[in-house]
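Task: encode each sequence below as structure tokens.

Item 1
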Amino acid sequence: MAHEIIMPALGMAQETGRLVAWLKSEGDAVKKGEPLMEVETDKSTMEVEAPKDGFLANISAAENTDIPVGEVVALIVENLDDESSKIQPISSKTIKNNEEKEQIGSNIETASNKEEIFSDSSTPSISSDKEIIKPSATTEGKILASPKLRSLAAKEQLSLIKLRQAGHKEPFKVADLPALRQLSSQSNMPLRNNATSLINKSSFMIFLLEINSAAKLEISSELVFVSFISSSLRLLFNEENIGIHYKSGSDLQSIFYQDPDKYQLENITPHDADIQITAEVCDLTSTDLIQLSGEINSDIIFTISNFSEQFLISLDWQPNRISQENALVLLRDVSSRIKSPLKQLL
């Protein structure tokens, strides 16, 4: 008797799972509890174990493919020479299901209107005689993306096809989410909002001088700014990870920080660029510039510059990402931390 191995549901509202690797080959003997395959979840890769002793047979799913939850991907049989059943290859099932869906769709029409639902892997058009036109080469095929990105994109009603159309490299990952948001909002983007705060910088400069002299450290204003901004963002969004793209210096060099508020100031170090960016910071305090406009790569952008004896702190945000009420709360919180930096260490 054959036992079916299916793609398990390892997360909430999960429709597909990515089969990362087979740990056994077809024909191998397996024991109950022995790892059979690796499946990617929202946060990690997990091993799926054999439910019984036997031989692995009829593998129908390839590695690095997204499989519908509940789909049979292999069998465990007692005897390789006497398989009690066969499973249809997933590719054939998918083609058959698509053909059935197209047939059903062609029958459900009205004289004045016809609606068809397609996945974001293709965008077929409908000709005058109701025949479905095949997708173009630029949109044809399954979109490769991590389950976590699919979940977040679905939650925000974002179409992954836009990343492919813009030329982003597949498989898409969570780090591509800001770009997807930007692409999705370009066609019908509300105007970005902006607010500015002026604060006296004397307390901040005294704090910076004293902390360096007392502890004999070399703490730059950049480390303090990025730590305070990260703290404010975490307070507002309550997210586990805060990524910041920081631009500073006369050439506005890019540096990336991951969770800088979780470290002592002297222990904050740059991170690799491959992180999910929560906000961008443009530090103009070492220049004569007050404001800078240009390419927008983030939904939330802070600009810090000198204005006489004050810091001018501007917040530019995308309304689709953050409401005006929350944006003003965020700006006030950052300004308060910079205005009274000593309170943050008490």
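Item 2
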Amino acid sequence: MFAIDRARMAENDETDATAGAPSAATRASPLERLASFRFAYGAIFAFLVAYAFSVEGVERLLFQHFSDVTEVAVRVDPADGPVADQIHARIAERIAGSRWVRYGDVRVRPLVVAADGHTAIFAGIPIPLLPRDTEDLGEHLLPATVAHVDVSVPHNSLLANLILVSYAAMLVTVLAVYTRRLTDREQAALEALTLTRDNLAGRAEQIESELGSVRQRLGELEPENELYAEEVDVLGEERSALEELLEEATEDLSSKEAEIEELRHQVKRTNKGRSSREDDLLERRFRTLYKNLEVDEHAISDLVALRDESLKLRAEEAIKRLSDEPEQAVVRRKLGGLPPHLSIFELAFAGKGRIYYTKGTARRFRILSVGAKNTQKADLDYLARLPKGT
């Protein structure tokens, strides 16, 4: 009877160990963990290379565009007036009035020379190099040719910043998705190890119970029965083997828990870096576009915390109106209940949105905070703590 029980328990042990043991695919090797960091470094390197080559590509496209524009501008008729003045006026109208130059901060410097190849008619905007006494030689200056067009996109320009922001958003998205996939995979491996540990623990308890039953039976039988002693020894060996497996599973589980915690820290650091990057980009954007406004760091953080892009656009629309057309801004009221040294006004946007501002020191207005109806109490508490001279 005991031999039959021993065979049945051995078969169950083999089945449970096969079903519950984690496969090699669920265990992340050190090379796989290193590969996750290599992916992040590669993504950052690709981001930098793509940004640099994109700026260079935009410069080449704009060079072709402004070369064509300049070629058209130098085709003038001497009968319409002085050649140099006509060329100056036409180039200034087509280049200085271009949206790439006005809004994208692109730098364009064409060089136009006369037919003799030595007399410079136009070099940059708006510096004339042709002496006035050569205006009568207009017919001899034609046909004027475009010797060179220098087109550059500075890295602090709006166009370069738009390219940088686009690639940065793509980089953060890719890293977030990749980190989420790693977290999900490690979570699945952790669940498999937890299930294995539970199975082994349950099996150990079952063996312990069966071992107790066998010992009780052996105590009732003759001590010289070697068969019973063999059963006890086998069960003791099985117990030791299962205890070793349980210890291995516990160690693997602790290792996986540490890896999961590290991945969570990485996700938090990625989100924190993204928020800081958004604050810097938004602050630079406001400082560049809205010359009549001072924007506090607290207000920048409030705008980033809105998260809803449509709500952000409505808030920036109200801020732009306050900067460019303050008489058209929808001022809700002057805030009451604040310390006497504070004179703060409330500007409405998007129904329940609120922008709190006051008179600036270096510029016309100063944006103090941005919030909504559900954050009004916290916003007013913050405003009430502002020091004198705000």
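Check on item 2: The chain has two domains: 1-287, 290-384. Residues 290-384 form a domain with the YaeB-like fold fold (CATH 3.30.2310.20).
End of task.
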